[in-house]
Every structure is written in structure tokens, then in C-alpha cells.
Amino acid sequence: MGQPITAVYPGSFDPATNGHLDIIERAAGTFDRLLVAVGRNSTKNVLFTPEERIVTLQECVASLPNVEVTSFDGLLVNFVREQGSHVIVRGLRAVSDFEFEFQIALANRQMAPDIETYFLMTSAEYLYLSSSIVKEIARLGGDISALAPEPVQRALKTRFLREGAVSS
Predict the structure, then answer these.
(1) What's the pTM value of the predicted model, to 2 decimals?
(2) Which of 133, 157, 150, 156 is nearest to 60 (CA)?
(3) Is 129 in contact with 93 (CB distance < 8 Å)?
(4) Catalytic annotation, pick one of 40, 81, 93, 109
(5) What is the β-pairing status of strands 87-92 and 6-11?
(6) Which residue has the higher pLDDT, 89 or 1?
(7) 132 catalytic, yes or no?
């Protein structure tokens, strides 16, 4: 038997969706250790701070003993190496995801040929799901119970009630 394999699943997770959790659970069943890594230097317009996203994700994965949640700055391949890993996990929903992820994987491969990217197709029920969709439905007071885990539902409701975007 070889050495335990640590995989890194990076993302903005702003917020985590049931699609993200689907990938996390499946990757946790495939690799010995899974690091869910919240990117800090995202160019995206984020709703939650990295610390808030980490806390929410930790609640979401509490039942998965081989999953840890952390954050990273800078180049992903550098972070992966610092963690003693050679595996990046990415989720794919559609052809548009594939094109973007393929470019990123090739760039990472150019910088770090020893690091492999593993793509997991999301389950069919989450093909359409994105953090942006979840945020917009929550902002407008819609039911996101089938779209996001309970800790994320709570965080979104709290955030939008505070901002006055949703009626209680």
C-alpha cells in the first residue's frame, strides 16, 4: 500500500452549494485526506469573508473526518505543494466549465507537471446550480433548502436580513 493521498479542492465557495458538497463528499470517499481550500485572492465580488466561508464550510463537512477546511493566497500549485499534495480536485457542471477548467489545468500543469488535476462531474440534479444562483434566490427571499446546506441557508438569511434585502 502506498502513501496516503491528500487532495486539494479549491474554490471561492461564496457560498457553498449542494453541488460543492456533492463533490466534497465524493472526493472524500476517493482520497485519504481532502483539503477544501477557500481562495482569498478571488477577483470575484464576494458576499462573505474568507473566514465566514471557512466557518460555514467546517459546519457543512463536520461529519466527514478526512476533510479539512482552510484558505490559501497566491498560486494554487504552490499551496498544493506546501500541503504535500500532488492532486487538485475540480468539479464540472457543463461544457462551459470544462473549457475554463481545462485552461486552468493546463496552466497548472505547465507550472507544476508533478501535480494532477482530477475532474469530477457534478451529480445531474446540480448541473444548473451555482453560488450566484443561490445568492440571488436567497436575496429575493426564495426557498434555497434544496440548493444549499443548512449552515449556508442560515448564513444567507442572516446576511440578507441584516442588509434589509429579505423580509422575515
Answers:
(1) 0.93
(2) 150
(3) yes
(4) 93
(5) parallel
(6) 89
(7) no
